Amino acid sequence: MGKRIVLNAGFLETRVAVQENQVLTQLFVERHGRRSIVGSVYKGVVTNVLPGMQAAFVDIGLGKDAFLYAGDYAALAPDEAEAETDAGEETGLEAEEAEVEGELAEPRREARAPIEEVLRKGQEILVQVSKESLGTKGARITSFISLPGRYLVYMPYARHIGVSRRITDEGERARLRAAVRALDPPTGGYIIRTNAEGLGEAEFAADVEFLGRLWAQIRGRFEQVKAPALLHEEMDLAFRVVRDLLSPDVEEFLVDSPEVERKCREDIEALVPGLADRLRRWESRTPIFEALGIEKDIEKALRRRVWLKSGGYIVIDHTEALVSIDVNTGKYVGKRDFEQTVLKINLEAVGEIVRQIRLRDLGGIIIIDFIDMEAPEHREQVYRALKKALAEDRARTNVLQISELGLVEMTRKRVRQDLRSLFTARCPTCGGSGVTRSEVAVAAEIFRAVQARTAESPAREVLVRAHPDVAAYLEGDAREPLGRLARSLDVKITVQPAAATAGRDHYEIQLR
Prior knowledge:
The protein is of the alpha+beta class and about 500 residues long. It is about 30% helix and about 25% strand. The chain is built from 12 helices and 26 strands. The strands form 5 sheets. Strands 7-8-13-14-12-11 form a 6-stranded mixed beta sheet, covered by helices on one side. A hairpin with a 5-residue loop joins strand 18 (about 305) and strand 19 (about 315-320). Helix 3 (about 235-245) crosses helix 4 (about 260-270), helix 7 runs parallel beside helix 8 (about 375-390) and helix 10 packs across helix 11.
């Protein structure tokens, strides 16, 4: 089995898994009533302009104001003709980069005029969400609209035609550009998507017509409605799967809901009728994710430690500023040559690291700590393997060379919440730190608290209620010091275990 798409339509959420050779490589989740807003277009009103940050806050009707960087506003961007060669992006489930030769598909972030000269408080503007709200930050928005179709992405404010960098044949790239230009499309720019390879004017014509009509509708609504208002909402997950993920290399598209299967079939017949035979209904009573081993892969993707087949392992830690990935030898000791042992583990770790980055949808700054390699050629070999593996990732990445310490610094574009944010919540006991105070530390604090509480009280008895682990320690290893404390204070000290639901550092002291 090569590539397979699996859609599970649940009562609370819809989940889509992508498997390659029966291994989970990507997971998309859409909670009912909480659809992703990336790609949606709004009429917003500027609430604050920050000259010092060259940014503005815009109310688009969400709980938090969205953030607009100066370079993401059309009136502040440099002219396309003056810009350097850059790469544009598609929008959809997977952002694909497009190389544009001497042209600009995505404007650079440098603004040519101060933001305070162009934007003012109360001004109404047309924007599109480019990043979900993450943590305490509001959504990131841009005025450079990108509307994805099946084969093309239409950018009304651009002027050039780009081709996905995944199409590497120069002759094919030139042919595709010529095919789009021959249609005499409406004013604007286009990115030709990866799945357009081998196709021509007939297939592109429908996209050009649809996207042009959609843009006209958005502009019309902008003139009619009062800000803040939603002008265009990105389609639901089932539709985006058909539009963005279903391609000839997908051997099977499994759906476990009759209603969703019918909807997907209609979408396929409208967009890619030639792939209709790939869609199949899951008939078994066993839940589809359970039967295909996807549930186990999801559970593993939430773990901090991931084991490699050789016995080594990687550790993934999240901090406020970055994600760190550490490679360890674990149980693998090799045979004779230590350097070869290290090289083998690092090379094996590369594949798993990239799979976990894609699966967990890690973004921002990522630091990978490979096991130290003395030989420069070994570091170069691991670096090339990492770059090759990341070539399969459609999110934009930037990777620096491996340092002498074995560290790799890289960035990956963050668009949506990562898997951990989707499936987990901060622990109420540790507050997200991942650790709690030891029973010894809590017991020492209880000793000090008893001394303080009895210093100004005539009480003759003290009752201590503490977490079962702490109570066991007080009545075990700390029994003798507890007795000495009672004698020094001339009181009777009784220990009772409290409910284990309370945190380990929670305790009560009652004086009698």
